[in-house]
Every structure is written in structure tokens, then in C-alpha cells.
Design a protein that fits this description.
Length: 474
């Protein structure tokens, strides 16, 4: 199937999905409010609410990548679509409730939600089968350098096991050790190419060939590529230039971002105050220990500050002085702590850090001074994360995984820093809701991955795993 036909079919199936979700909302709306409210009985007003739902759903589906069949599994897609239509339904039913000054009828709401969930499951499973069928008809190639050049690395295994590449029936492995010309000859008949750490000269030749022959290319960016992504294009005399500056967002963005931090942190503390009290009470009743703990972290320009969290481990978790990873079934984590970590409730006290101005709602996660020094030694660009305030959530937290390497997390953080945008901040905040429901975002490492010796500890630091160590209990 040609690319044009694939895009048309995908667009058509997306349209079916959007049409069904909007039709179900129309049913909920008509059986909840329209028959009893004079102001919305008019057909034009009714149409406005249907259009608003469609806009909300399309926007949220885009934010949550609800239609990205090739990169996400069936379960994640269903979760993404579920968040999209539940938030859309809820927002517009809330508006209807304010107009009516009463809650909607529960039967049509429950019936509608059930219908939307069922359709999402059917639609996603159907599209997954279509995706697998299409991939099976294509041929892929993985181009890499010889291992002695340091270009073949273990992180290729993660790509090989990825949902996208693992679905190909035919994958051709091409090593550049024999030269660029033999490699290009092996690309004949290939539809998709994956490049891994190819030298710049050879990469240019390969990209040129692939573009000329309409071959799709995937390549992970280097840190330099990420930094250049935010460059400004200018012309000096007759020479095109790319200007790269230290991050310095405009006054409007800075003012709006700080205002958003203040409003949302205050609103969050007020709305979540019962949950904060219950969580604190649960931590206290668990073992009678302290409710909070604090730890020194670094924020913008390397300034240190105290970060606050609900305590999720026993008070003497590291009384022996050893620094250890939080393992998947770590005995140091209390039953209450395990639960609050799973749903990220332990992070809620950081709203006070946002209110104080030490942190922002969105930004790179703050690191300890010791780890920052170690990371900067191995990755000098790591210090560039501190061009902006640290955040409760960030690009690396919503798009990375628990064990994503510090190099890849750094790239994600720099992608955020080089392209500051309020819309981007709002998107990350919304996607954070999705991440809460994904187990791999909060679980600890497996027991057999735990390091104990000094040499192993250094290896752990390089992997930038989340440490629960050197805590100062309040």
C-alpha cells in the first residue's frame, strides 16, 4: 500500500473515531440538558456544544498521542483516548451543569462513557491489526558503524525491541565497516532506514540517497542536534548562519509562566487539601514517623534549595549509610509509601516549592549536587539543564521511562529548554495525568539490578536512576 493510501486510510479512520465520540456526546447532551433548558434548545446552540466537544477531543487526542498506532501499544492508546473523551465530556457537561444549575442525569452519562470505551477498544485493536499488516509489507534496514569505532552500543537493543521495528517481517542489518558505497547498494528495495551514530560525512550521503529514493529515515539526535533545533536562522552578508543563545525567554513568556505557576499551585493546594491531609495522616499513622522529608537539590543557575516530599520509606531506610536504589519490591518502602509513590502523591508537597519560586510546575527535574557533578563530568552539557527553573514534571518525565539514560533525558530536557512555549507547558501538564496511570513511570528497578559496591554506585549514577538516598528527615 502506498504512503498516500496509508495516510488517507488513517485520516478516514480517525474521522470515524471522532465522529463516533461526538455522536455519543450528542446523545449524552440531548438526554441530560437540551430537553429541559430553554437557552440550549435552539439548534444553533446545540451545534456549538457539539463542535466544542469535537475541538476538545481532537486537541486532547493530539496531546495524548491517542492515534499514534505505530509507536504506542493497544493499552496505552485506549488510555490516551479514554483521557481525551472523559476530559472533553466532563468539561462540556460542567458547562451544561452551570447553565442548568444542576448535575446531568447519570444514566445517559454512564451509558455514553461505556459506549465510548467499548468503541475505543474495538477501534484501537482494529487499527493495530491494520498497522501490523502494513508493516509486514515493508522492508527496513538498520545502518550502524563497526563496533570498534564505538558506534555499536547496547542501547541499540532497546530500539530493536521497540514496537515499531520489531513488527517488520524483514530487517536488513548494514554495517559501514566495508564502506559507504557497499552500504548504499544494500539499501536497494528498502522502505525505511534506521541510522545509529553514523559519522557526519557518511550520514549526509545516506540521507541524500534516502531522500532521493523516498526512503523514510529515523535517527536519534545528538546533543548538538538538539541544541541547534532552537537556533535562529540569520544571514551574515552572503552566508547563512544559525545563531544559538543561552536560554533567555521573552518577558511575556516569563511573566505568564510565573503567573500560571502561582495560580495553579495555589488552586492545587486548595483543591487537593483534603488529599494532602489524608496522605499526611496515612504516612503518620503508618509508623508514627515524620510526614515529610527534605533534600538539597539544584535549580536555575545551580542555586541550591530544599525540596519537599511526603515520606514514602521507613525512617531508618539508610541508617547504615549505604546508598541504594529503590528496587521493584524494596522492603524499605512502607505500604502507604508504595501506594502514594504509585500515584505520585509523594510529589504534592513540591507545590510549596513552586509557590516559593524555587521550582516551576514544568521544567527539568532537580538533581542533587553530588549527582550533578558526576553527570557533568561524564556529560558536560548536563549543566545546560539549569538554564531554567527545575520543575515538578517535565519533558523527560512524561516522554521518558524510569530507567531512561541520563544522556537521553538530557536531550529531552534540552528539547524543552530550546523551544519555550506556554502551550508546550500546558501539554506536559496534561500528559502528566496520563503518566500517572502508567506503571513503568513509577516502579523501582528489579532486585537483580541493585548495585552495592562503590564502582557499581558510580554506574548507577550514570544511568540517572531515581535515588531515595541521603535524605534529611524533618
Amino acid at each position: 500500500m502506498s504512503t498516500k493510501k496509508e495516510k488517507f486510510m488513517m485520516s478516514f479512520m480517525k474521522g470515524i473515531n471522532i465522529l463516533w465520540m461526538t455522536s455519543v456526546f450528542a446523545y449524552i447532551w440531548n438526554h441530560s440538558y437540551v430537553q429541559n433548558v430553554e437557552r440550549v434548545r435552539d439548534q444553533e446552540m446545540n451545534l456549538v456544544f457539539l463542535l466544542l466537544f469535537a475541538v476538545f477531543y481532537i486537541g486532547l487526542a493530539h496531546i495524548y498521542d491517542a492515534f499514534e498506532i505505530c509507536t504506542a501499544g493497544v493499552g496505552e492508546l485506549i488510555l490516551s483516548q479514554g483521557l481525551a473523551f472523559i476530559l472533553s465530556d466532563g468539561a462540556l457537561l460542567l458547562i451544561g451543569g452551570l447553565i442548568k444549575k444542576q448535575f446531568p442525569s447519570m444514566f445517559p452519562v454512564l451509558a455514553g462513557f461505556t459506549s465510548q470505551i467499548a468503541f475505543s477498544c474495538l477501534w484501537t485493536n482494529l487499527m493495530d491489526r491494520v498497522f501490523v499488516f502494513q508493516i509486514r509489507q515493508k522492508k527496513a534496514a538498520f545502518v550502524y558503524c563497526d563496533s570498534k569505532d564505538g558506534c555499536y552500543s547496547d542501547d541499540m537493543e532497546e530500539v530493536i525491541r521497540s514496537r515499531y521495528l520489531s513488527k517488520f517481517q524483514t530487517v536488513r542489518w548494514i554495517c559501514l565497516s566495508k564502506g559507504i558505497r557497499p552500504a548504499i547498494r544494500e539499501l536497494e528495495g528498502i522502505n525505511i532506514v534506521f541510522l545509529r551514530k553514523i559519522p557526519e560525512h557518511e550520514r549526509t550521503i545516506l540521507l541524500t540517497y534516502c531522500l532521493e529514493h523516498q526512503i523514510v529515515v529515523y535517527q536519534p539526535p545528538g546533543i548538538g542536534d538538539v541544541l541547534m533545533s532552537g537556533a535562529r536562522q540569520i544571514n551574515l552578508s552572503h552566508m547563512p548562519m544559525m545563531r544559538v543563545d543561552f536560554s533567555s525567554p521573552g518577558y511575556v513568556y516569563t511573566f505568564v509562566k510565573r503567573g500560571m505557576d502561582l495560580v495553579l499551585s495555589i488552586a492545587g493546594m486548595l483543591i487537593l487539601s483534603p488529599l494532602l491531609l489524608l496522605t499526611g495522616l496515612g504516612v503518620k499513622l503508618q509508623d508514627g514517623g515524620n510526614v515529610f522529608y527534605r533534600q538539597v537539590r539544584l535549580t536555575k543557575k545551580g542555586n541550591p534549595f530544599w525540596i519537599y516530599k511526603f515520606r514514602s520509606m521507613c525512617g531508618d531506610a539508610e541508617a547504615d549509610g549505604n546508598v541504594r536504589l529503590t528496587t521493584e519490591h524494596d522492603s524499605r518502602v512502607t505500604p502507604v509509601g508504595r501506594w502514594i509513590r504509585a500515584v505520585r502523591l509523594d510529589e504534592l508537597p513540591q507545590l510549596f516549592n513552586v509557590l516559593k519560586g524555587d521550582m516551576s510546575l514544568v521544567g527539568p527535574r532537580p538533581e542533587r549536587p553530588e549527582l550533578t557533578r558526576q553527570y557533568t563530568k561524564d556529560l558536560p552539557a548536563f549543566q545546560l539543564r539549569m538554564q531554567v527553573k527545575a520543575g515538578i514534571t517535565g519533558y523527560a518525565q512524561v516522554y521518558g521511562k524510569y530507567n531512561t539514560s541520563p544522556h537521553d533525558k538530557l536531550q529531552m530536557d534540552l528539547l524543552y529548554i530550546t523551544s519555550p512555549s506556554i502551550f508546550h507547558d500546558l501539554k506536559i501538564l496534561l500528559v502528566t495525568l496520563k503518566v500517572i496511570f502508567m506503571k513503568e513511570s513509577t516502579q523501582g528497578v528489579k532486585t537483580d539490578e541493585k548495585m552495592e559496591s562503590d564502582e557499581q554506585l558510580e554506574a548507577d549514577e550514570k544511568m540517572e536512576l531515581e535515588w531515595e538516598s541521603e535524605r534529611k528527615i524533618i
